[in-house]
């Protein structure tokens, strides 16, 4: 592995999941591997789980961690050829090359605008770092993808499944704010690579990028989709076609204990209680969200480990 | 020790003070104890001394430290059963459990509102972490208590006293802003457990919670109270009965060299010069505020050490 | 070395440059030297390169690093004798002494106001820390000087020069914002101590402090100044005489590939493309700005190393 910006960077997903589970059993086994190696974590947006789990993962490997909230420094210019006489103090070309001088790898979090679809889909922040940095880049959630989350999700399903081919459902939920599609996108791509019976359910108008959903079945009838599910992953996203818009806030799409049946409940967190999912689910023993959050550490750790081994 | 949220968590105060003084003589003696252990420090409010001294203490013990300014992440919901469709992105139930996945202990700073007395006294932030986290909680100053400060204060008095039973006076001082009662509360509780001759002096109307002051003598006459004092701890607090209000800004309550007599001057810092205390005191050799601030490290270190030993 | 607040603190510049180049070849050779030593980095202003390179340097030496954005804590009072009843919560006298309890050295970044020349030139922030702290102080860019940058610049010229006495030109450039004179000041002072043929070119009105420029030739004709240059250091600064003002934004002063001739292009970064310098220069192989930025680590590292050796 040379970078970890999309799930396509993983050479063998099932091998990686196995290795992550081994790391979880012995988190400090490679605590010398990262000695004298530094990851710079750059946040264009706020973070709790990603920030703490990635820092923990790096330290478990013996790495040094330097954290920079980019907006505390200054605005970066990403366009080529501009006359930088307004509000941008530094061009990404310099910033990425310079940070590469101080880092053995760079982890970047940068959300989409949800305003300019073409710009968001270009992944200009993440890809500019990939283009100009001279060290590996790790995606800590970009405009369209959250591959560390998807890896943690896959680890969690692998740990918990009692069947060879469990039924997994991604179920849209209402939310008062317009949210990115990144988590849903990466979860879908991950499920397409695992031995699972996978489908998506959401209201009409919430279709995601068809280049990502491909042949995955989509069912507008939530109840039918949830039938006999083993894992239900609940997540809101804003409309992809009517880009960034909230088309539906119908509380009928909220996940309930009744709808969940016997399935395990998954969510990437943070989650709005009694909007996305009712208390009874989160407080019940079918919820695996804390285990999922814990697996963020080992998803990050296995990725950092592979990047370190390829430095 | 399983948590350090109030002074009641200390099994034996004089033993703890002795151990802190030993740590001060050899701060790196236990530098392997915290290996592969992480403290997450969560700040709902800003900090200088608490932030630096607690981080230093953790590193002296070989721990990893991860620091999160919570308000840089997002608003947490603390109420049960709410429909989270407004401004709160995550419930404390998830946040506390999740952070526990990445931490071996969690240290929390959260000031009172000074508006809603019942809510402040419920210590809902600190106690929610205690309730939902699965790792020990350290109080880095909560709505009503600052037990790390009180422990540093006790260490300082132990180091400096030339008498078996010194006279210690807590003297209120004026301040332009409404300040919490936390430092005063914890200092009083600490003094009640030490072998000191302790009294409080403040203007009428500044009586603290009687459940805390108990039988400690209160004297409205500052001059009489200060008579023959060995240690004078000066501190402003806002009214407890007329909750959060400033009732008095009378400069006559400012500490002066003349009033101080031969006593040592103590203050938790930060201190407003020539409002709370005149320059001549702070710049004179009876002030022990820097030694007090230094002891914050060893107060935190002895607490973290005991928590580590009980993990 | 007891502090590093100005270039005058360097006992022997050419020795220090040589030592920095040796450290660059083997950055972890002294990774035990800083064990159990802590540098507190205080930022009154934002930073990217200085923040990351100084943190990296400290960690290369095995030091612990604690970073505090001072403005996230509270306002400090720097005046003596004031009645602190308005917006300042803590006096520098206490702050500097207290931080010294938690640190083995303190690094400070504090830009000028560019409003009050006398106050800026007094270097009241940096010098107050130097006066009241009880540990060494490192200047991470102050009102009038940036000695870590100048040391990195000198290292870069030493590495790259093919002549015993290269010609070095400091060339002013336009900029939309009023910038400090600190980088230019320290670069000039550094060049005056090296074996270089040095001159300055800028528009009339941009003369710097004559106590700094001394006998260094100043040429208002940029083209003439640049003739046969080996190194061209481009940098904007606001007017020193008409203090903090922008007198000229003439794009003719922008550095171009044509003007540069065969010289190496230097800049401290961040740099505004096509305002300070055209793309063709930064994207061409005569630009050494990334190497310069990399040398920030070894400038900081050699300084921290000497300070550690003198603790």
Which descriptors would you attach to this protein?
homotrimer; 311 residues; alpha/beta; 5-stranded parallel β-sheet; 4-stranded parallel β-sheet; 11 strands; 38% helix
Detail the topology: elements first, then pairings.
The structure is a homotrimer of 311-residue chains.
Chain A: H1 13-25, E1 38-43, H2 49-60, E2 64-69, H3 70-73, E3 76-77, E4 90-91, H4 92-102, E5 105-109, H5 117-121, H6 124-132, E6 137-139, H7 147-160, E7 167-172, H8 182-193, E8 197-201, H9 210-213, E9 218-219, H10 222-226, E10 231-235, H11 257-260, E11 264-266, H12 279-282, H13 289-309
Parallel strand pairs in A: 1-2, 1-5, 3-4, 5-6, 7-8, 7-10, 8-9, 10-11
Structure description:
- The structure is a homotrimer of 311-residue chains.
- The first copy, chain A, is of the alpha/beta class.
- The first copy, chain A, has helices spanning 13-25, 49-60, 70-73, 92-102, 117-121, 124-132, 147-160, 182-193, 210-213, 222-226, 257-260, 279-282, 289-309, and strands spanning 38-43, 64-69, 76-77, 90-91, 105-109, 137-139, 167-172, 197-201, 218-219, 231-235, 264-266.
- In chain A, strands 9-8-7-10-11 form a 5-stranded parallel β-sheet. Chain A has a 4-stranded parallel β-sheet with strand order 2-1-5-6, sandwiched between helices. In chain A, strands 3-4 form a two-stranded parallel sheet.
- In chain A, α9 links the parallel β8 and β9 (218-219).
- The radius of gyration of chain A is 19 Å and the shape is globular.
- The mean pLDDT of chain A is 97.
- Chains in contact: A-B, A-C, B-C.
């Amino acid at each position: 592995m040379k970078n970890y910006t999309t799930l396509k960077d993983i050479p063998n997903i099932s091998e990686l999941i196995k290795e992550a589970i081994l790391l979880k059993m012995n988190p400090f086994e490679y605590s010398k591997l990262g000695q004298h190696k530094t990851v710079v974590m750059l946040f264009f947006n706020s973070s709790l789980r990603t920030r703490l789990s990635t820092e923990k993962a790096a330290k478990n490997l013996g790495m040094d961690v330097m954290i920079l909230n980019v907006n505390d420094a200054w605005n970066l210019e990403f366009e080529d050829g501009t006359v930088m006489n307004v509000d941008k103090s530094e061009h990404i070309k310099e910033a990425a090359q310079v940070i590469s001088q101080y880092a053995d790898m760079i982890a970047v979090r940068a959300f989409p605008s949800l305003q300019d679809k073409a710009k968001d889909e270009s992944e200009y922040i993440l890809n500019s770092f990939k283009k100009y940095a001279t060290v590996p880049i790790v995606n800590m959630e970009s405009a369209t993808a959250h591959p560390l989350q998807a890896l943690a999700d896959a680890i969690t399903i692998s740990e918990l499944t009692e069947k060879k081919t469990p039924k997994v459902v991604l179920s849209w939920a209402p939310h008062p704010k317009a949210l990115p599609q990144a988590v849903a996108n990466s979860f879908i791509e991950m499920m397409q690579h695992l031995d699972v019976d996978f489908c998506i359910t959401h209201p009409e108008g919430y279709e995601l990028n068809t280049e990502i959903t491909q042949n995955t079945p989509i069912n507008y009838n939530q109840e039918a989709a949830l039938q006999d599910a083993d894992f239900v992953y609940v997540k809101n996203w804003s409309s992809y076609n009517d880009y960034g818009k909230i088309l539906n806030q119908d509380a009928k799409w909220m996940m309930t204990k009744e709808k969940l049946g016997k399935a395990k409940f998954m969510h990437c967190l943070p989650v709005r209680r009694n909007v996305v999912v009712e208390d009874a689910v989160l407080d019940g023993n079918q919820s695996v969200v804390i285990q999922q959050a814990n697996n963020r550490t080992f998803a990050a750790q296995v990725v950092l480990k592979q990047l370190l081994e390829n430095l």
